[in-house]
Every structure is written in structure tokens, then in C-alpha cells.
Amino acid sequence: MTMTYAQPMPMRYTRARLTVPALWRQVVKGSEQSMPEPDRSVYTQLEIYDGVLAAFERRDEVAAVLGAAADRPTAVRRLRAELGMTHLQATALLDLPLTTECRDRIALRAAELRTALER
Predict the structure, then answer these.
(1) Is residue 87 assigned to a domain?
(2) Quick one: how far is CA 73 from the chain centroid?
(3) Which residue of 25, 27, 52, 71 has the fewest C-beta atoms within 10 A of its own C-beta?
(4) Domain assignment present for 108
């Protein structure tokens, strides 16, 4: 019997990279679809939403940071350093189109999560 061992995932397929886009597909496309939400606690979702909503308020600074970054890891590091974001917030922001429609959906989802936590 031959034993096989799981190979380590390449850097581009890390867990955070796979779960965050699924979360944004749900937010960007709307909640009317029946896509299951990724396994993520409500508090982590709110952390991401709050960071992204704060970045929408500082859109000019975000654009300057992204324009100066040469690649994705550099952009994440600069967002974390200059805007005080967490790693999840910075990677989520990079995967998100910065439109007002998207901001409204994120704000609505954050409000829904907060009211669910208050119950």
C-alpha cells in the first residue's frame, strides 16, 4: 500500500485568498442568490466590513497607496501600514470594486449583522 501525503498549498491558494473572494461575490452580486456564506464568524465579517467602509471614506488615500504599489503583497503591506488595516481588511479591499453600489451593499450587510448580534 502506497502512502501519499498532502502537498503544501502554493502561496497563491492560501485560505484567506480563497474565502475572501467568496464573501465578496455574495456582497457584490447581492444577497438574493442562494450562495452559502463562507464559514466565518460574524465578528470577523464585521471587522472586514468596517475596514472596507472606512477605506471608502478615505478613497483618495487608498488610490494613492494602490497606485504606488508594484504588486499585491506590497499593496497589502502599505494598506496595513498607512491606513491601519488588518490583513483581512486589506486583502478584501483589493478584491473589491470601489463602487458606491458595492459600498451600499456592504453597509446594509454590516447593519444586518449588527442587528442580529443585538438580539
Answers:
(1) yes
(2) 14
(3) 71
(4) yes
Range of the domain at 52: 40-118
Grid coordinates in use for 5? 501525503
> How far, CA to CA in Å, does 92 sit from each of 51, 56, 88, 116?
9, 13, 6, 23
In a domain, 17, yes or no: no
C-alpha cell at 18: 480563497
pLDDT in tens, 45-103: 888 899 999 999 998 999 999 889 999 999 999 999 999 999 999 998 888 887 888 88
54 exposure class (CB count in 10 Å sphere: 0-12, 13-18, 19+):
middle
| Grid cell locating 11 | 502561496
Q: State the DSSP H helix or E strand holding residue 30, giving kind and residue range, or none if neither.
A: none
Residue 91 lies in a domain: yes
pTM above 0.70, yes or no: no
pLDDT digits (tens, 9 = 90+) for 28-37: 555 445 445 5
Instruction: Provide the CATH number for the domain around residue 59.
Output: 1.10.268.10
